[in-house]
Amino acid sequence: xxxxxxxxxxxxxxxxxxxxxxxxxxxxxxxxxxxxxxxxxxxxxxxxxxxxxxxxxxxxxxxxxxxxxxxxxxxxxxxxxxxxxxxxxxxxxxxxxxxxxxxxxxxxxxxxxxxxxxxxxxxxxxxxxxxxxxxxxxxxxxxxxxxxxx
Length: 150
Description:
By secondary structure, the chain is an alpha/beta fold. Helix content is 36%, strand content 13%. The chain folds into 2 domains: 1-33, no CATH class; 35-149, no CATH class. β1 (23-26) and β2 form a beta hairpin. Mean pLDDT is 84; it is low at 1-32.
């Protein structure tokens, strides 16, 4: 399926295109390149590709200098109760996801997700947390919520 309003770019321009969140075509399929990165932890060094670095944890991480973070949005972090249950093994990943998504339905949380989406529209952002595995971290869930607002 082709969209006449979209122009495929050569592979050599992939990094430039990715930084702008433009749609990309690969073998006939269109997909969006996200401006939202979740690959880094809060302990990783800043790089130019990070864009705005947004800390999304309830508590400030030990040993992290304020200069390494551009914005702290603690109310989109995992609740203390959910973290406790997850670390104790009292909830499955599916239960964790369900509870996190319910927590994000609060008025303040919805407002913050929209705010983060506004930053993503303006340029690249990096969602930061102390979790090493981005796939089991709430950042992957938050990224989906933010992308739904774009």
